[in-house]
Amino acid sequence: MSWIEKLSSPNPEERHRAVEQVAAEGRPEMAQALADLLRTAQDDAASLNAAIQTLGELGAAAIPALSPLLSDPDDDTRLYAAQALGGTKLPAAADHLLPLLDDPNPNVRYHVIEALGHCGNRAAVPALLAHLPRASFQEAFAILDALGRLGDPAAIPALQT
Questions:
Q1: Which range has the top average pLDDT, 2-16, 104-118, 144-158?
Q2: Confidence bin at 43 (pLDDT 50/70/90)
Q3: Distances in Å between the alpha carbon of 131 and those of 51, 140, 156?
Q4: What is the pLDDT of residue 15?
Q5: Which residue ranges make up each domain of the chain?
Q6: Least confident interval from 23-27, 74-78, 98-102
Q7: Global pTM?
Q8: C-alpha Rg value of the chain to the nearest Å
């Protein structure tokens, strides 16, 4: 049985070992199989967390596999995809995340805001500032953290009001 086949094993331990092996190999072609875990392994925290981390480490190769998950009907799937995109630390990931600032689920919005802060794309600053007046306390805190990470001095005047 290949590592890709083991990623869909019903046995959580076998799935987790497969994710660890894929992570060790760092093979970009595994991105889709790992992204599928964000939908199917939600009852397996160890495999799920390892998949999120590994997808982030795969960088640009993970973006095409993760982007469709951002419109998944399942809140958790969108949240996990946002976390993985943030883990890529790539400015290009922000373009995929920005529409989710209007997600109906507050947990998804919170993790999208965090991910935007990790992507390093200052183009997200206007959208984050626009979201601030309607943000929950948790979201506002995440926005301030994201703005600090992005380090765009253009955000300072808006924050002083």
A1: 104-118
A2: confident
A3: 29, 8, 15
A4: 85
A5: 1-77, 89-155
A6: 23-27
A7: 0.90
A8: 16
In Å, what is the CA distance from 56 to each residue of 40, 50, 63, 126, 158? 18, 10, 9, 25, 31
Query: Which CATH fold would you assign to the domain 89-155?
Result: Leucine-rich Repeat Variant (1.25.10)
DSSP character string of the chain: --HHHHHT-S-HHHHHHHHHHHHHHT-GGGHHHHHHHHHH-TT-HHHHHHHHHHHHHHGGGGHHHHGGGGG-S-HHHHHHHHHHHHHHT-HHHHHHHGGGGG-S-HHHHHHHHHHHHHHT-GGGHHHHHHHGGG--HHHHHHHHHHHHHHT-GGGHHHHH-
User: Which of 60, 110, 68 lies closest to 89 in space, CA to CA?
Assistant: 60
Q: Angle of helix 45-58 relative to helix 31-40, nearest 10 degrees?
A: 150
Structure tokens given for 23: 């992570």
Task: Indicate the residue type of 5.
Answer: E
The owner of tokens 């190999």 is 25
What's the pLDDT at 9? 84
